[in-house]
Write a structure and sequence with these properties.
Elements: E1 7-11, H1 32-44, E2 48-53, H2 56-65, E3 69-72, H3 78-85, E4 96-98, H4 101-104, H5 111-114, H6 118-141, H7 162-171, H8 176-191, E5 208-211, E6 225-230, E7 233-235, H9 244-251
Parallel strand pairs: 1-2, 2-3, 3-4
Antiparallel strand pairs: 5-6, 6-7
């Protein structure tokens, strides 16, 4: 905090890429008292805590400790759903969920094509299935969702965020318009910058994407960017280095 960071992020459970055994991705790495201490100190300074979590019990103790946003997520029970919506230890009195489907799609692809080792493949698939269940529950229960894709992880590039929107629409009951609201309005609210960003309104920053087709009909239209404006000034678009082999693999999902 002395260095001027905007958020504190913690790892309540293990992750997929560093796991050395099947199931380690969701294994608890912090205790409830540790999480409470981190959240208390952070909230005392008016800042929020994000938590990497990839198991049901991890989500439970993260929320009990006061975490403000869960990154990735997992299947929930009624206690967890209620804690998301009414969290007395969170800075705002509630917590949010940010699924990251792109980061876990390796568990859906043919491991012979991706060359992923069996442990990573099994953990990816388990995390994906549990995260999808949790996301569907969040949509039904009215839990505030954000959207992220864990860019720079294996099989996640910085130029194809549209895939995350497409996964949400294809895999859940979310409409293209809901997905667009989550990635703009909700994300700005979660980050605490919605006074200036997240919606097209008088007085807000004119950060705009102009697309070639209507994304409310097909959210994949987000990949066809015609123009970009930052603070009202048009940005000159530059060539993007793409990975055709990776794109081909992901297009099959």
């Amino acid at each position: 905090m002395k260095q001027g960071v905007d958020w504190i992020k913690i790892c309540v459970t293990g992750g997929v890429t560093d796991a050395r055994r099947i199931g380690e991705a969701g294994a608890l790495q912090l205790t409830l008292p540790e999480i409470e201490a981190i959240c208390d100190e952070t909230h005392k300074n008016g800042m929020m805590v994000a938590a990497h979590v990839e198991s049901t019990e991890g989500v439970r103790i993260a929320l009990q400790g006061g975490v403000d946003t869960i990154e990735h997520g997992a299947h929930m029970d009624e206690e967890i759903i209620e804690l998301f919506k009414h969290n007395p230890r969170a800075l705002r009195g509630y917590s949010t969920l940010t699924p990251t489907f792109q980061a876990a799609v390796a568990g859906l692809m043919d491991p012979q094509k991706t060359k992923i080792d069996p442990i990573t493949y099994a953990n990816s698939r388990a995390v994906y299935e549990s995260m999808l269940a949790g996301c569907r529950q969040a949509l039904i229960s009215g839990i505030k969702l954000g959207m992220g894709n864990d860019a720079s992880m294996a099989y996640v590039t910085h130029y194809d965020f549209w895939r995350e929107l497409h996964h949400l629409v294809k895999l859940t009951e979310a409409s293209p318009l809901q997905a667009l609201n989550i990635v703009t309005k909700n994300n700005a609210e979660i980050l605490g910058i919605d006074e200036h960003y997240g919606t097209v309104e008088v007085g807000k920053m004119a950060d705009l994407l102009l697309l070639k087709e209507d994304p409310t009909k097909d959210v994949r239209s987000v990949k066809e960017v015609a123009m970009v404006f930052k603070h009202g000034q048009q940005v000159n678009l530059k060539p993007i280095k793409r990975y055709p082999g990776l794109d081909h693999l992901l297009d099959q999902l």
